[in-house]
Amino acid sequence: MRKNIELEIAPKHLLINSYNQPIILEDYLKSLNFNMFYQQSGMAIDLDSFKFENNDKIGEIRTIKSPNELEEWILITEDAFKKKRNSHMYKMFLSENDIRFYGCYYKDKIVATLMLYIKDAIAGIHLVGTANEFRGKGFGTLITMTALRDAKDLGCEYGVLQASDMGKSVYNSIGFKEYCKIRHWEYNKL
Question: In whole angstroms, what is the distance from residue 42 CA to residue 66 CA?
Fold first, then answer.
């Protein structure tokens, strides 16, 4: 694996959780010059117990349908996560039946984002981000609850996500529970 990373055949990032085997995998990765650079909480919610609380006074949730809307959506995710996005990839996802993009609009401008990926009875919540100047106002909660409601209406049984430390309390308030830690590792050349 290390040789493939050095030859740029494989990506230099790994994502593992506490259930990966062997248990000493993290020690082994360190010995190969991998460093953990980020940790998240793996969280889930049983959608049978989920109750949608509508607070449309703070913003309007819309599904993103056009490439132009998606460009604005991508800019907000880049702002929220401080990371450049591959717009070509997301434009390809726009036509997928099992992927939905949500935007929370405030004064006709996207201020929060979410990508919903549905596989079988599982709803994956991804890229929940809020523009910096709109954080702490409930936009992330509203967009997440709307996506979960839609997933439940589509027959999903569970919602899953990876939460940052900043988002964990928001997801707890919605009803998510932490089940594991997910660690992001990066290979550093010697």
Answer: 31
pLDDT in tens, 43-61: 999 999 888 877 667 889 9
> At a CB cut-off of 8 Å and minimum separation 6, what does 73 contact?
64, 90, 101, 103, 110, 113
123 has which bridge partners? 118, 159
pTM for this prediction? 0.83
**Residue owning tokens 């967009």:** 143
Domain boundaries defined on the chain: 45-181
- Superfamily grouping for domain 45-181: Gcn5-related N-acetyltransferase (GNAT) (3.40.630.30)
Question: What DSSP character marks residue 106?
Answer: E
Please provide residue 65's backbone torsions phi and psi, each rounded to the nearest 5 degrees.
Answer: -120, -25
For residues 143 and 138, what is the distance between their CA atoms, to the nearest angstrom?
Answer: 9
Condensed to tens digits (0 to 9), the pLDDT of residues 126-165 reads: 999 999 999 999 999 999 999 999 999 999 999 999 998 8
